[in-house]
Specification:
This protein folds into two domains: 106 residues, Rieske Iron-sulfur Protein (3-layer Sandwich); 203 residues, Naphthalene 1,2-dioxygenase Alpha Subunit, Chain A, domain 1, CATH 3.90.380. The strands form three sheets. Strands 1-10-9-4-3-2-5 form a seven-stranded antiparallel sheet. Strands 11-17-16-15-14-13-12 form a seven-stranded antiparallel sheet, with helices on both faces. A three-stranded antiparallel sheet has the order 6-7-8, with no helix packed on it. Helix content is 27%, strand content 25%. The chain is built from nine helices and 17 strands. The protein is an alpha+beta fold. Bound molecules: FE2/S2 (inorganic) cluster (FES) and fe (ii) ion. The site of fe (ii) ion has 7 residues, from helix 6 and helix 8. The site of FE2/S2 (inorganic) cluster has 9 residues, from loops.
């Protein structure tokens, strides 16, 4: 069976409101399909503009099988390229750094910051360097964030920017830095990792650290979540000039919600982890601003720090999760924050979620697995995720008829 036919057959098997048929989570062919149909087509959050402040600064990431380099060009703008040399395809840049020119480590073909090939030694005299530019990728920025898309036909970005910008801009991500990055390789399909990340049905038992501060905004049945409480929160945000409310877009969701009463940050004691607040947020008692981007990320920003979570498939039944902790760029470790205290809650939560996703994968691998029903109360966002995924699959296979 060819890829599209197989995916059509799998979609036909799917029962709405239920977890997906087994092959979606276990079949290596579906993993390959997901790279093409999802990860090569969607917007992926790549980092902060402030991570590459000067011309020549670059960062790298790998999406699916494709290494990408994102850099600050000679004009001060941000550009992105497939990080694959036009000679024989070697990866050019690695990690994060600074370079006036991009020099391939293999035979030293040399590109400028616009991706133009400047030099290819020992080629014939009439060799045309202009025919070998680095292949560009799409880049968008919003409120200090960088997004990348590998497709020439990316999903519409403007409405996302219009919604996110006014809500996120006051949080000062243009003047922020990454205080810590944690990478977890999870033995689970990326969709199981993301389904887990979209619900808090499991939180009360699985996340004792997170639940000290987190008030599950994804479910309407949380005790104490009264209209008066929410109205009080909205008024508090308004008085600090912050936009609240929530938005569900075609491939994104965002909003602002209160933390547990008396809590201002995702820490064990609910007090800030960082002495310098992040952005223009008054005393920082502003709950959490949240945005989730299909297919692979969610992000929280509280008064003093941000936490970005991204899950990228790195193999069949394997997902690499990257967590980034974001603080004010002038905050000094050991003076303004203690790294252990800053990272304690989300590190613990990430590790607990890794164990849950891997455990979920083990059970789903069984010959006994059949799709089960999502809770309409506690798993609405999971349902939105799987609906979005199936719609994206359907659109992709329809184009290949
Ligand atoms: S592969 Fe890059 S210079 Fe040869
Ligand atoms: Fe969790």
């Amino acid at each position: 069976m060819t890829g599209p036919e197989k995916m059509r057959a799998l979609l036909a098997e799917r029962q709405g409101g239920h977890s997906l048929p087994q092959a979606f989570y276990v079949d290596p062919a579906v993993h390959e399909f997901d790279l093409q149909a999802i990860f090569h087509r969607q917007w992926i959050q790549a980092g902060l503009e402030s991570e590459i402040p000067n011309p020549g600064d670059y960062l790298t990431m790998t999406i699916g099988a494709s290494p990408i380099v994102i850099l600050r060009n000679q004009h001060g703008g941000i550009a992105g390229f497939f990080n694959t040399c036009r000679h024989r395809g070697a990866q050019i840049c690695a990690g994060q750094g600074h370079a006036r020119r991009l020099v391939c480590p293999y035979h030293q073909w040399t590109y400028d910051l616009g991706g133009k090939l400047l030099k290819a030694g020992r080629m014939q005299d009439d060799f045309d360097v202009s025919a070998y530019q680095l292949r560009p990728v799409r880049i968008e920025t919003v409120a200090g964030l960088i997004f990348v898309c590998l497709s020439d036909d990316p999903p519409e970005f403007g409405s996302f920017r219009a919604e996110l910008e006014p809500m996120l801009e006051p949080h000062g991500l243009r003047n922020a830095k990454v205080a810590y990055t944690a990478t977890l390789v999870e033995r689970a399909d990326w969709k199981l990792v993301m389904e887990n990340a979209r619900e808090c049905y499991h939180c009360r038992t699985a996340h004792p650290q997170l639940m000290r501060s987190f008030s599950d905004f994804t479910a309407p049945d949380v005790s104490g979540r009264t209209q008066a409480w929410l109205a009080d929160f909205d008024a508090r945000c308004k008085s600090r000039g912050l936009k609240s409310g929530s938005v569900v877009g075609p491939w994104y969701e965002l909003g602002r919600y209160p933390l547990t009463e008396g809590v201002v940050s995702y820490t064990m004691d609910g007090k800030p982890a960082v002495a310098k607040t992040l952005g223009q947020v008054g005393d920082g008692n502003v709950g959490a601003m949240w945005w989730a981007v299909q297919p692979s990320g969610f992000n929280h920003v509280v008064g003093d720090y941000g936490f970005f979570f991204q899950a990228l498939p790195t193999g069949p039944r394997e997902t690499t999760v990257t967590g980034k902790w974001i603080v004010h760029q002038d905050a000094v470790e050991g003076v303004d924050y203690d790294l252990g205290r800053l990272t304690e809650v989300w590190n613990a939560t990430n590790d607990q979620d890794r164990a849950l996703a891997e455990n979920n994968q083990r059970g789903v691998n069984s010959i006994a697995y059949v799709p089960g029903p999502y809770s309409p109360i506690a798993e609405q966002l999971v349902l939105r995720f799987t609906d979005w995924y199936c719609a994206a699959v359907e659109t992709f296979v329809a184009r290949r008829k």
